[in-house]
Amino acid sequence: MSTPNEFRLLFFGDVFASPGRRALFDRIEYFKKTYEPDFIIINGENAAGGFGISRRIASAFFRVGIDVITSGNHIWDNKDSLEALEDPRILRPANYPEGNQGAGVFKKKLDDGTGIAVINLQGRVFMEAIDCPFRKLDSILEELEDYKIKIVDFHAEATGEKRAMFFYAAGRVSALIGTHTHVQTADETIVDGTAYITDAGMVGIEESVIGMKKERVIERMLFGRAKKLEPEKDGEVTICGVFVIIDRETGQAISIERIRVRESEIKREEQNISV
Questions:
Q1: Residue 220 CB neighbour total at 10 angstroms
Q2: What is the CATH number of the domain that holds 270?
Q3: CA distances from 101 to 37, 78, 86, 91, 257 (A)
Q4: Mean pLDDT, contiguous 10-residue spans, the chain (275 residues)
Q5: What is the CA radius of gyration of the chain?
Q6: Cβ–Cβ contacts within 10 Å for residue 253, how many?
Q7: Does residue 183 belong to any structural domain of this protein?
């Protein structure tokens, strides 16, 4: 049961294609009842067939209670994403050069006056050579003095870069949550009031290669030829993310809990409750 001073955040890792979307739509009420969140964030850069997002898909997420959708490098893979980015609740990494569509920061004052800011940044190691995410974070934080709760989605490939960003941001943001690899890590921690996990994982089919058909990926690796990848649509979805409790007055994280649950496990739990 939540207390008035707690801000309860649910963050779901990269929602992958139609299986991930459907699972989250079907099970979001379970997570609301279980965790009683005040705010829900998803990374949606793979929501449309594994590449980008559309306004229609984003609207469906907002209708079921998602508050903000973050993204990453794949947001640019789908022309529909450009229209979607007109909505301030859909973010692209803030450290892409000026002139790109969309924004990288979402700000909101809640009914009780609590200020929350969501920041989307992207790493550079093994990724595109865009602006420095470390210096971009500094400039963003200078403009967020009135916002106690600050959540960062750091979309990056290298674990070392994510860890470095965590220690760089520690004490200055409420939570820094890694995305992009789709493989959930087991290193959740809190340092100087900042909750952290290297990667929140994926909402998608477990028996796949980070959401794609494993046969296509294996063939590409065996023969060294470009092979068009295709989202896996058959199999059970695993829902991954984190649940973070933050002190509303200080903006410091109190706890962080990993979420990793198969749909079948949720169904069994719901059946046991109904019986």
A1: 16
A2: 3.60.21.10
A3: 30, 13, 8, 10, 34
A4: 84 96 96 97 95 95 98 92 94 96 95 93 96 98 95 98 98 98 97 98 95 91 85 94 97 98 88 66
A5: 18
A6: 25
A7: yes
Q: Tell me how far the alpha carbon of residue 132 is from its chain's centroid.
A: 20
Which residue of the set 74, 155, 180, 182 is catalytic?
Answer: 74
Secondary structure of residue 13 in the 3-state scheme: coil
CA separation for the pair 271, 275 (Å, rounded): 6
Decide if 74 is catalytic: yes
Instruction: Show the domain range for 250.
Output: 6-205+237-274
Phi and psi based region of residue 99 (left: phi greater than 0; alpha: psi -120 to 50; beta: remaining):
left
In angstroms, rounded to a whole number, what is the distance separating the alpha carbons of residues 13 and 41?
9
Asked if the structure places residue 29 within a domain, the reply is yes
- Beta strand ranges found along 14-141 (DSSP E): 14-15, 39-43, 68-70, 105-109, 115-122
Q: Which of 254, 256, 181, 253 is nearest to 11 (CA)?
A: 256
Task: Provide the 10 A C-beta neighbour count for residue 132.
Answer: 11
Q: Is-above-0.85 flag for pTM?
A: yes
Residue 97 lies in a domain: yes
Say if 221 falls within a structural domain: no
Q: Which helix (H) or strand (E) holds 137?
A: helix 133-141
Instruction: Please return the burial class of 168, using the count of CB atoms within 10 Å of its CB with bins 0-12, 13-18 and 19+.
Output: middle
pLDDT of residue 4: 79
Question: For the chain, what is the domain count?
Answer: 1
